[in-house]
Design a protein that fits this description.
Layout (H helix, E strand, L loop, with lengths): L1 H14 L8 E2 L3 E3 L3 E8 L5 E7 L2 E6 L2 E6 L7 E7 L4 E2 L4 E2 L5 E8 L3 E6 L7 E7 L6 E4 L4 E4 L4 E3 L7 E2 L11 E10 L2 E7 L1 E5 L8 E6 L7 E5 L1 H4 L3 E9 L11 E5 L3 H4 L3 E6 L17 E3 L3 E3 L7 E6 L5 E6 L5 E9 L4 E6 L4 E6 L3 E7 L5
Antiparallel strand pairs: 1-2, 2-29, 3-32, 4-5, 5-6, 6-7, 8-10, 9-10, 10-11, 11-12, 13-14, 14-15, 15-16, 17-18, 18-19, 19-20, 21-22, 22-23, 22-25, 23-24, 26-27, 27-28, 28-29, 30-31, 31-32
């Protein structure tokens, strides 16, 4: 603790002589001059692992519990309930139905179980079923949570939420993607995979035997942690993040954030990478920490609501905090803002509107940021 106080004191002294256009310390951490730290909300029990925003609700899960917040006043989230779970690892990508009625908790350790929660009462959620053999690292809702796809290939029939069934076939059998981490339904039945290569799949005819529509391959075979395709898969650009855990220094191919051009994919069956960003270590004031604890990662991220064939993306980036990237109309990347929390490791970033961002942090909880930088 003495070392941390000494380091922060030195950094504060350095910040006092920096030009106003550069970063400086705030109550929550270091920010660029176009990002404001608005509020900190501690997640008191366990570590905030993942989250999902659905309508006026925020759902936050950890290894020990999950909490539901009413965010109709986004500057003042109201805690509605915290439900203890015991130890359940890890439920990173929180799956909630579009009507905010059901949540899936994917428990990969110590059990291999998918838990189904009824959220009709946001103050008293009730677990209504569990399904052994479907507790993959992440589980994604398909068709409004009528089915669940697990990252290891499990397919859960959830049409009866109180009586789920594990289907015999795995959805990923016979497909080229390896090292699956997560899947993202960009529109009903059309799924983008966090795998190498990245795959775009059509599951509208079959949830156990999807059709391969396109792939995006990295020559270095990097690990893909998360993917998004803005505007329901109709944007020119697809986005992908990577993860490299427990690396003290960022180096070549550590957790890169990348942009992919989807033009003509129906004809070529390929996505083409247009640019990627390599995290580096620095001095906090330049938006980069001197060292990493959890590693280099462009973890969970989200594009701004104004994103259209380019725009701003907020990325949860472990010790690099929240990084704001501009994607140009040609698919090139530029850092346009950042927030590095004191003693933090940011897991995810979510836009609540075109200015406000909620960040989910393993060490801290929830931070609310205001982004005042360019949107295009």
């Amino acid at each position: 603790m003495k070392v941390r106080v000494t380091v922060l004191s030195v950094l504060a002294a350095v910040a006092s002589v920096l030009p106003s256009a550069q970063a400086g310390p705030t109550a929550g951490g270091w920010t660029s001059d176009n990002v404001d730290h608005v509020k900190f909300i501690p997640f008191e029990v366990g570590t905030a692992t993942g989250a999902r925003v659905v309508g006026k609700y925020l759902f936050v899960t950890s290894w020990k519990n999950f909490s539901i917040y009413d965010i109709k006043d986004p500057l003042n989230p109201a805690l509605l309930s915290t439900t203890p779970l015991g130890f359940m690892f890890e439920n990173e990508d929180v799956a909630v139905s579009p009507d905010a009625r059901y949540m899936l908790f994917s428990e990969s350790l110590p059990n291999d179980t998918l838990h189904v929660w009824d959220l009709q009462s946001k103050t008293q959620p009730v677990e209504i079923a569990s399904l052994d053999g479907a507790g993959d690292h992440t589980t994604t809702c398909l068709f409004g949570c009528k089915y669940g796809w697990g990252s290891s290939g499990s397919v859960s029939d959830l049409r009866r939420k109180d009586a789920p069934k594990l289907l015999d076939d795995k959805w990923n059998e016979g497909l080229p993607g390896k090292s699956h981490h997560d899947e993202t339904e960009v529109r009903p039945g059309y799924v983008l995979t966090s795998s190498q290569p990245i795959m775009f799949l059509d599951a509208t005819k079959s949830v156990t035997k999807p059709k391969l529509l396109a792939t995006g391959t990295n020559a270095d075979k990097r690990f893909i942690h998360s993917v998004r395709w803005p505007r329901g898969g109709h944007d020119r650009f697809m986005l992908a993040g990577g993860e490299t855990n427990f690396t003290a220094r960022c180096g070549e191919n550590n957790g890169r954030f990348s942009v992919w051009d989807t033009t003509n994919f129906k004809k070529t069956k390929k996505f083409k990478m247009t640019d990627d960003h390599q995290y580096v270590n620095g001095i906090y004031a330049d938006g980069s920490p001197p060292l990493n604890g959890m590693g280099c990662s462009s973890h969970w991220f989200q594009e701004n609501p104004t994103f259209k064939n380019g725009g701003v993306v907020a990325v949860g980036s472990y010790e690099h905090g929240s990084q704001f990237f501009m994607v140009s109309p040609k698919g090139k990347l530029k850092v346009v803002g950042f927030y590095l929390p004191f003693g933090g490791a940011t897991s995810a970033a979510f836009w609540i509107n075109k200015e406000l961002v909620y960040t989910i942090d393993y060490s801290r909880g929830i931070d609310i940021l205001r982004y005042r930088g360019p949107l295009k």
